[in-house]
Amino acid sequence: MVAFHEAVGATLGVTAVDQRALAVIMGAGSVSAGELAKEIGLTPGAVTGVVDRLARAGLARREPDPQDRRRLVITAVPGAFGDAFSGLAKAMAELTDRYTPAEQAVIGDWVARTIAVLREQTRILNERR
Amino acid sequence: MVAFHEAVGATLGVTAVDQRALAVIMGAGSVSAGELAKEIGLTPGAVTGVVDRLARAGLARREPDPQDRRRLVITAVPGAFGDAFSGLAKAMAELTDRYTPAEQAVIGDWVARTIAVLREQTRILNERR
DNA sequence: CACGACATTTCAGTACACTGAACTAAATTG
DNA sequence: CAATTTAGTTCAGTGTACTGAAATGTCGTG
Asked: Which stretches make up the HTH marR-type domain (chains A, B) (predicted)?
C-alpha cells in the first residue's frame, strides 16, 4: 500500500505529505492554510508549497474566503482524487463482488477496526517524540 | 497506513524507501546491493546510503559474501523489524481474536487478494513512466 | 598472471522540501 | 482611524537523499 501511494505521488508530482494533506482537506470538506499547517505539523511557509503542488496536480483548489479575505478556502477538486485511483477503485469493486453481503459486512468491520488501530498506534509513535 | 509507516520511519531514522528496501530484503531472505538497487529502482551509489541507514537503525546487516568477496550479503536482523511494530502486532492480534475462525478465513482471503490488487495497480502506475 | 569485467563505495554536484524571518494585506480593537 | 493582531506568501538558508563518475578491491579468463 505504501508502494502504491508512492507510485501515485510520483505520477501526479505530489509528495506523501501532500497526499496526507489532501486526505485532511477531503475529510474536513474545506480548510484554511493555517488549519492545514496545524493538522499536518508544518509551518505556514511549507503549506504554501503543499497547496501549490496539489493545485498544480489539479487535486485541490485555493480560493479566497469571502468572509475573511486574508484567509484561503482550500477544497479538493471533486473527482480528481478518484480519477488517480480509478484503476484501484474498479479492481476493488470487482474484488468486493466476490463476497456475500454477510462476508462484506465482516470485512468492512475488520477494515474499520484496523483503521482505528493504525490511528491509535500512529498517535502513540508520534507522541514519543 | 501511510501515516503509520511515516511515523515508524521517523522514530527509527529511516526513509520510506528504506522501509520498502527492508521489505525486499525480508522477502528474499538476503540480497546483494546490486540486486537491491535494481529492485527498488535506485543507483548503486544510493543503495550504500539505504543500507547505511538500515544498519544504523539495527534493522539490517551488511556482510561480505564468502563466495564472492566483492559482493555483500544484506540480511534483515531477526526480530528488529517486529520490535518496531510490536505495538501494532499486539493490537492486531487482539483484533483478530474478535472474529470466528470462519470470519478470519474470509478476512485473510480478502487481505491476500487486496495485496495482489495493490501490487498489480502499482505495477501499472510505474510502467506508465 | 596480466587483463578486462564486475560489485560496491566515495565524492562532488544537484534537486527539493522544510524552517524561520521578513513582508503584504486584511481584519479587529480601542 | 491609528495601532495591533492575524493569514498567507516570499525568500534565503539548511538538511538530506539521489545521480553520475571516479576509485577501490575482487573475480574470472585467455
From this structure: 7-104
Query: Where do the structural domains in chain B lie, given as residue ranges?
Result: 2-96, 99-129
List the B17 CA – C24 C1' distance (angstroms). 40
| Gap from B46 CA to chain A (nearest CA, Å) | 18
CA dist B24 to A18, A37, B52, B107, Å?
A: 26, 34, 16, 25
The residues in A 99-128 lying below 8 A from B, measured between CB atoms, are: 99, 103, 106-107, 110, 113-114, 117-118, 120-122, 124-126, 128
B41 CB neighbour count, 10 Å cutoff: 10
Dump pLDDT digits (tens) for A50-101: 999 999 999 999 999 999 999 999 999 998 888 878 899 999 999 999 999 9
Contacts of A93 in chain B (CB under 8 A): none
Report the candidate in A76, A121, A10, A97 with the shortest Cα–Cα distance to residue B8.
A121
Q: How confident is the prediction along chain B (129 residues), in pLDDT tens digits per residue?
A: 878 888 888 888 899 899 999 999 999 999 999 999 999 999 999 999 999 999 999 999 999 999 999 999 999 999 888 887 889 999 999 999 999 999 999 999 999 999 999 989 988 887 765
Those of residues 40-69 in B touching chain A at CB distance below 8 A are none
Q: Supply A92's cell numbers.
A: 476493488
